[in-house]
Amino acid sequence: MIALVGFTAMPIIYMVSTAFKPLDELFLYPPRFFVQKPTLRSFFDLLTATDSSIVPFSRYIFNSVFISVAIVALSLFVCSLGAYVLSKFKPPGAGFIFAVILSALMFAPQVTQIPTYLIVSKLGLVNTYWALILPKVAVAFNIFLMKQFFDQIPDALIEAAHIDGASEWKIFWRVIMAVSKPAWATLIIFTFIGNWNDYFSALVFTTSESMKTLPLAIQTLAGGPGVVARSGALAAGTFLVTLPPILIFLLFQKLIMNTMVHSGIKS
Questions:
Q1: Cα–Cα distance between 109 and 113 in angstroms, integer?
Q2: Among candidate residues 151, 75, 139, 148, the one with its CA nearest the CA of residue 101
Q3: pTM
């Protein structure tokens, strides 16, 4: 397992090493895996490469952070509520609704990109934050994930809360979400990583430079002229794009690995 983990981590280690390499080490042949003289020059080159833009580099970072955090918060709220209703209230047509959600999992996001763009355009939301946030709020996989987890929660736990006089909102927030930490921690990680690394949505739904996200800005930098000369800047940019998902995973990994807690109630 240690050997497998080490082999899997090699690309990440090489990426971090390359981000701190000076210019003479970047073009060595054969290339060195580990940096010998670490420097922050590549990060300054990244800022210099984006200085020609009409917006500062910090704007790209803000856009990515704001959009990713907003999507995570709204998706967690909406998908958890929807999954809770389908799992515990079972309204008329719940089976059909869940079947539609399952069928939506079969479609790749690119398949629905054109109708999504048409809807966003008709609403007049193109080139706004709403265009990048709203289509990602109600995600079929997130609802499926939360519902499958809520199905494991004993109904006796909810009945006990009703007997104690708790309202439905209080049961949802204080009981259901409290024992579902592994599920919503997994949802947070998947949603954040998926949207943090997404450059295609910003490419489709935005037209101005000030609305670009960090991955799209890095992709633009990688596709422009002088890409060889900007190898260090690209490595630094890749490091900045990759670092937040790793930190998010390290923050929530214990919750993901924890098993379901049934509070001692057995059905």
A1: 6
A2: 139
A3: 0.83
